[in-house]
Amino acid sequence: MKKILNMFILIVSVTMNACTPNTSTTNTTTVPPSATNAVEHNNSGYFSLTLTNKQSENYFYTYDIDTKILKEVAKTPDTAQYPLGVIDLKNQSLYYSERDSTGSDQLVKLDLATKKKEKLTSNLFAINYIIPVGNQIIVAAAEKTKTSVQLASYDLQTKKLSFWVTPDDDDTAVEHLMYNPFTKKLYATLYSTQERKALSRKAAKEQAPDVDAATHRVVEYDMNQGEQIKQRELYKAKEVIRLFSVSTDSYINNFILLESPSN
């Protein structure tokens, strides 16, 4: 029976920028889009939310944790293989994935004040995660010349995309990615694409009901030191670690092992 490990570093999960919510039971207020909604921000914690409708449109919202106000900030056509986007109010920008003329997804920036759109990449095939961190946009993406989804960062000042693996590495892949804004540390679940494929072939050959899990590693990158390449391994097991959350401190406090139902 296949097992799935969910690692919880406490319970606070953030999309981009968050703080501790108050305990008020005030109902959420939804504010329609306007020229001012897209640019005003009171510096409190917020969540960035993405909604996709049946009309192939993406709507991007912010939810202010203190005021409990939900604001529609932007709308884009839903063209990407995987609709994805995040609002960065500090830089007054929306970063999202958009399909190019080759059918691949690229990272795009929308200036919330001027509504000017800028394509930031041209060599990607797919994007699974987008996380703004200071002057960098951290992504988990696959290049057009590779098959694995890998960690990379786009520098907003130099306007360059840099992958955190060597050019000949098409094996290291990202399963899950999470940033802790309190400690400024990035966490990723990594696995071997080749190992996963080999285990799939083995299960097919043996007609096994389940595929054995490849080795998954949870690693930490300290963004305070700019150590994107240097990683600290926190956990390693032959389990599929699809999801974990992070807390306001940097210590792992609990592991919860969940067993998936048999197929």
Please provide a written account of the structure.
It is a single chain. The chain is mainly β and 263 residues long. It has one domain (3-17, 28-259): Neuraminidase, CATH 2.120.10. The chain has 1 helix and 19 strands. The strands form 5 sheets. The chain has a 4-stranded mixed beta sheet, with no helix packed on it. Strand 14 and strand 15 (185-192) form a beta hairpin. The termini are close together. The model is unreliable at 1-26, 35-39 and 252-263 (pLDDT under 50).
Write the topology of this structure.
Blueprint (H helix, E strand, L loop, with lengths): L2 E6 L20 E3 L14 E7 L4 E8 L4 E9 L7 E4 L4 E7 L5 E7 L5 E3 L4 E10 L2 E8 L6 E6 L4 E4 L8 E9 L4 E8 H14 L9 E7 L9 E6 L2 E6 L8 E6 L4
Parallel strand pairs: 1-18, 2-5
Antiparallel strand pairs: 1-19, 3-4, 4-5, 6-7, 7-8, 8-9, 10-11, 11-12, 12-13, 14-15, 15-16, 16-17
Question: What is the gist of this entry?
Answer:
This protein has 263 residues and is mainly beta. 5% of the residues lie in helices and 47% in strands. It is built from 1 helix and 19 strands.
Beginning-to-end CA distance, first to last residue: 8 Å
The secondary-structure class comes to: mainly beta
CATH architectural designation:
6 Propeller
Q: Overall pLDDT, averaged? A: 82
Shape assignment: globular
Strand content: over 45%
